[in-house]
Task: inverse folding
């Protein structure tokens, strides 16, 4: 019973950390949504300065993501690392949709293909047995 509780808690912790790290990296690498109705030169200057400062933050979060995987491997094993990766990568299509459109992704407005749904569902569910065999 303790092992089951440990796997469920680890699953949600890994999902939270992986999703947030992925969000910082992808949002920094992909150019932001631009609204054509705002042609204010002051706003354009501020966006450019924000993009320059964002490069340092992107590099920091890429290094932090690499250390995240190294720490998971060092303290646990490769199974936990693979579970963290399985929880991280299915979020990429939703993040790209949010960045491209500038609005939050919901089931109603997100044009999801069958293959995207199957892959994300398979990855999310496959992470549970992976954590089970890695931690117990």
Result:
């Amino acid at each position: 019973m303790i092992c089951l509780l440990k796997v469920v808690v680890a699953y949600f912790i890994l999902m939270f950390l992986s999703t947030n790290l992925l969000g910082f990296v992808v949002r920094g690498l992909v150019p932001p949504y631009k609204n054509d109705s705002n042609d204010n030169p002051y706003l354009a200057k501020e966006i450019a300065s924000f993009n320059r400062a964002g490069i340092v933050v992107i590099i920091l979060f890429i290094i932090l993501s690499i250390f995240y995987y190294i720490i998971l491997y060092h303290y646990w094993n490769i199974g936990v690392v693979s579970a963290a990766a399985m929880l991280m990568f299915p979020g990429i299509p939703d993040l790209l949709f949010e960045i491209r459109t500038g609005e939050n992704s919901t089931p109603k407005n997100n044009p999801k293909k069958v293959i995207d749904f199957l892959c994300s569902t398979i990855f999310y569910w496959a992470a549970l047995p992976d954590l089970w065999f890695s931690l117990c």
Notes: The helical segments are 2-29, 41-75, 78-88, 92-101, 114-135. The chain has one domain: 2-135. The longest helix spans residues 41-75.
